[in-house]
Each structure stands twice: as structure tokens, then as C-alpha cells.
């Protein structure tokens, strides 16, 4: 039992590494108590297992279960590799075995999300580019901390020829293989941020799917629009289907001899695609539309909430949304209570009940889950000329402060003006009546 | 039991929020199994508690235990505030009560670390400043992910008059109050990075102390040197002593009428302090040296490892350190095994056994825990003229890549040249014989 106690009084790492240890430890402790109790009250009948031998087994198992087994696992296969070129087989079985060998990660495995994001290795051309990326990254770290997700920021070009938007696929693949404990890899572009810190991905909706993007079936299958979906934010299941799909998806990329051909094919299929290079977003739309029977049934086109929200229609709504949330809080005393950040998620769930409702239509006044500054290109500064530079950077500032207010609040502060980074202490009973 | 199952199959959040739920769930499940077994094998004697009523109790308790209680907590006190001005009383008791009300955080509470860092609200003056800050932040996020620590990045000026190095104290205080689950707040400057991803803070050493900094008693008490310690990295216990100490420490800051007087006092006490303004580092040295009886016994001056390492003597050693670690790995097959990132900590513990030894003396070839680029000022670019700009930025690049290699490795890649951001896939049996 000493070993279990040590586990239970270690740092949060032991919580990270030893959830199964905790569970087993609880079970073991209970059995021990019952065994001791019974030994004092009832003679142990001969047909009941010897609790002594069970005790030894439970003492040994938790520690052993948390280490890599001495026997070979798939990681020990010298052929095993992380690159795009290395084909991976039987990944579902391998993940399952890994989870069996590491039972501390079994609890919650089916819903475990690993967030992945990143940016280029060298400094941004835009003088404020890296500053914006830093703020966007902080935002993601805040969201992940609130919901207990791991996050990995990549800033290396893993495949020398897979540049730009193609660069994310070697990262996603490496993340899958390095994180068998994660059921989902959640790619979020560097220019997307979480503007609803309460909202959690409704994973139950996606239980029969392996890839989730923001999109509209009609725009893909009928209108054949390259913006019928957005590939800047996606949830991809850590499974063999996804590895196979990414092999096909990435085969349209610049590292292959078919890159130019794919550029032409995608442009001729999606007539509103205005640039010649093969891109991952149109590529995904193509696979859904043209190789429908192979892939489409496992790809969820989510449009019932801002799985990924277009910034231009969102950024002017923040003040009205805040007003709405303040109104709700004035009605519901519980929501105004100060609390530790660690229980924010529970308060968020309560708040969700009061503000729930579709928010695809601007003006519905629910916080947009994710606001994505597509076309603004914060790093290079080469924004789409549909908008001014100011519209982009001011929009980002407002969105970042809008999100930050939700994080600052349990720390006692707020930005009273979304266009200004200044903060003030949160008044005692906020929002005021 | 349904409610418990829901908990056990939720996301990692449930692991975050429900460690006690897991333990209780394990105990409950074991009791249930035993109860069912016994009901089939032995008539339940009348003097044994009715397992049915116990079942109900265990089903209810885990969920209830994870919410804020409906009754008032200290958070509900309208006088409760997070700012420097708001005096906090009985914090130890308040934390203890909070942990009682939220038993899911009790396990591991005594060693739970919350890392806090941050930078200024506006873009850096140095054109590559924010890019460096972004990389330093990623480094911290990597370290925290590996060890299961939460991390909070602050980029708001919480007190309008507490600028520069003084800005951290309102942040640390707010973090303490918002995170009662954390035993330690770990402040790490924006220009410090983790260069040993395996190493864990030896908290057992600090069990009788409330504040840990890198420092040398002789330099403080005898030589009266302002660099007898470094205040850029510190571990501070989340307790009443620390709140009281920070009140005194921060009272030397620019938000008080005594700021200029303190500047003079600190300079006349620590003769090598060359700038006139009252600073937090000399302030801390002063409190240890001059108000020794009040504070010194609770302040640990750590010098047995690079709790915070001076970059200039470290950055030239990275290649030799890497060679040493490669040698060790060639000897110990277990260390060469590929593995999931989630078990890196266990491999790290094994590796530590082989490379353990004091590393204060350059050349001992143990990875420095933290490398701190004091004097380089990456954000403003106003580096100390003792060094060239190139020495600073190249040193940072090498340190960041040295650390990144330890993170990239379980993802299948490495920077072969520390001075270059390029990566290559890790060869199959690395390091090569």
C-alpha cells in the first residue's frame, strides 16, 4: 500500500500518469479495508480467494502498469517512423495495446484531445506578426488549461518541401504517433483563437466520424466552392483511417510530382478557387465531393456552431454579446460568484444552459466558439485586399481582449475597452445591477 | 454507478477535476464487486452494513464533491479582492477549506505547481523580440506539458504603476488567489528557458521553506552583492507567509511613495548595484540580509543546481553536454527506446540516475535546468553592453534548439545543428553507435 500512497501524494504528474493507479489504488484500498474488517468479524471461508495474494498483486500492478513494458512494443520496431513517407499499419491495434500497457491513460481515453498549432521557424515579416502569434498562442494555452487539454506548438518545418498550409500534416502525423493516449488531434491555425472559453467540443456528435471541419455540404457537393469548408481548424481522430486519409490528402502537396497537376485539377473542379497552387482546403473539398464514397461518410461538415468562425462578421458583435451575457448573469446569482479558475468549466456548463442556441446567424448573441482571421495573414502581413490592414489588426486586438476577459476574470481583472490592452480590477459584484 | 461511469469516460477534464472521484470510484467499484460476489456466496450477516445504502452514498458523493458548495466560501466575501492593495487574511485556512470542498484536487495538492510567466502588453521594440518571446513561451509550455503543470501567461499590466520587473507581483498574487489548488507558484521570466526537460524541482528540499531563488548566502550576507541572488526565477509557496512577504517586498516598488528612498537605501546597502531605481532583486537581497530574523529562515538560496543558470557560461557547453548524454544512451539500451511523450518523465528519471551530479561548475556536462538570458533584454533589445547583440541572439537560438531537441525527439525529429532551425528525422537507432 506504501507504493500507492506515494503515488497519491506525488505532484500533478502522478495524476497525469497515474489515473489508473488512482482508480486501482482506490479499489485496492477498499478491498484491504473490507478484508481487514472481515478478518475481524468472520472467519474467511475456504472457497474465497486468499486476500493476501490478491493484495500483493494489487500492490505490484499499479506501478508496473504505468511503465513501458520490458517486451517490445510497436515503438521498438526499427521500421517505425514519424515522417509522411513512413507508412503506418494497424495503428488502431497499436494504440489499443499501448493503452492496455498504460492503464493510467485508459480513463478518459475516448475523449482525450491533443491541441496542435504552430507557425514558421523564422521571425514574421509583419513587424507586429510575432506579437500577434504570441497572443494567439496564449489564448490557446488558456483554453487548453481550462479544459485540461494538452497543447503542442510546432515551429519547425518537418518536411523541407511541405511549406505553407501543407506544413501542418507532418506535424499532425507526428503528434498522432507520439500521443497514442489522445483520441483526437485538434489542429487550430495560428490565426484562429477561442472566443468562447466555456464551450466544449460536442464529441458525442462525432462518434461515428473521424474528421470534423466547419463546412456546408451544399457548397461542396452542389456549388463546388473552395470555401465550402475551412481547413484551418479540424478535429481528426487518432486512428488508421486518419493516417490513410492524410496520406491521400497530402499526396496533393508540393512534395509530390503531382503537385502542379493537382493545382489544375482542383481549380477546374472548384471554379471559384482563384490561385493556381494545389492547396489543402480545396484538396479536402475535392476528396469529399469527388471521392465521396471513399471518405465522405467519415467526415463531419459542422455548421451548427462556430466550429470556425469568419472574423469579419464576428468582430463587430463582441460588445452586444458581452451585454447579453451580463444580462444573463444579472438574472442568475450563481453565475456571478467568484471562484477558482479550476472550477470555471462547471460554471461554464451552467452558463451554457442559459445562453444556448444556434449562433450561425450573426446577432444571435452567443459567444462564437472560434474566431478565425482568414485572409489577414498576421505573420507575413500580406492580408487579402478585401480588407484594410487596420480592420485585421484591430479586429484581432478586440477578439483577443474579448477572449482574455473570460480568462482574466477569475484572476480579478478585465479589459473594460476591447480596443485597449489596459485592465482594471473586476468590481466586487460584477456585472453591476 | 452510472454517474461514476460518466465521470470515468469524460475527457481529461474529468481527470483534472475528478481525481478524488476516480479514487472513490475505484473504491466504490471494488466494494460493489465484493458485495455482489459475497451476495452470491455467503448470506450477508446482519451485523455488516447494508451495502445498498453505502452504494447510494458513494454514487452521490463524487459528483457533489466536485462542485462549489452552495454555502458561502471566501470567494463570496464581497471584500475579497485580487489586487496588491487588498490585504488577504487567513489564506492558509481558506486554501485548506477550498481543498476540502473540492476533494478532486486534494490528491497531489502538496506538490502541485502552477507556472506563471509573461511579457509586456505591446509589441517589442526589438524586431525579433516577440519571435524570441514566442519561442521561450513554447519552451515553457513544453516543459509544463511533460510534467503536468499548469501554465499561465500574463500580458496585461495589472497595476498601472508597477511596471518592469515589479509587474510580476500583482500577477503572482492573482495567480495564488485564483489557484488555491496550487501549492507553489513558479515564476519564470520571459527570457529564461528550460534546458533540461527531464529535471523536476526537488520539492522535498523546500518542505520547510516558502520561497526559493538561485543564490549564495555569502554573497548576500557578507559581500552584499545585488547579484547574490536572481529574482527572475522563483518558487513561492501559495500561503499566508508569501502574501505577507510580497506585501513587504512590493512596498519597495514604484507604486509607493517610498520608491526613491528605497532606491537610495538599496544602493547604499549593495554597493555593486549600479542603477538608481529600487529593483525587486536587490529588494529581496535586502530583506534576506537586513531583515534576516523576519524572513531568511523561510527563504531557500539554492545553488546546488542551475535553478537559474547564467547563460553566458552555459551556451558554449551544449554540444559537449549532448555528447555526454549520447554516450550514456549508448551504454543504456532502455534510454534509446522510442516511446510516447506521455512516458517521457519516467525515461527522464532513469536518465537522471546516470547523469546525476553537481553541475554548478561548467563542464560537469549535466544539462542545465534553466538557462536565463539575464542582461540580454530580448524584448527591448537594450542588452547589457558587456555582450554583443549577436552573442545574445545566437545564444538564445542555440539554447532554444538544445531544449527543443528534447521535445522533438519523441515526435521523431531533431535539430542536427543548434545554430540552425532546420530539422531532420531522428534515425532509427539513435544515438548511432
Automatic annotation (TrEMBL), chains A, B:
Subcellular location as annotated: Golgi apparatus membrane
Keyword Transport: no
Record-annotated membrane-spanning stretches: 21-40
Topology term for the membrane: Single-pass type II membrane protein
InterPro entries: Glyco_trans_34, Nucleotide-diphossugar_trans
Record keywords: Coiled coil, Glycoprotein, Glycosyltransferase, Golgi apparatus, Membrane, Signal-anchor, Transferase, Transmembrane, Transmembrane helix
Any one GO cellular component localisation term in the record: Golgi membrane
Family according to the record: Belongs to the glycosyltransferase 34 family.
GO molecular function terms listed in the Swiss-Prot or TrEMBL record: galactosyltransferase activity
Gene3D superfamilies to which the protein is assigned, alphabetical: Spore Coat Polysaccharide Biosynthesis Protein SpsA, Chain A
The protein's name: Galactomannan galactosyltransferase
The species this protein was found in: Arachis hypogaea
Pfam families: Glyco_transf_34
Residues forming coiled coils: 318-345
Signal peptide, first to last residue: none
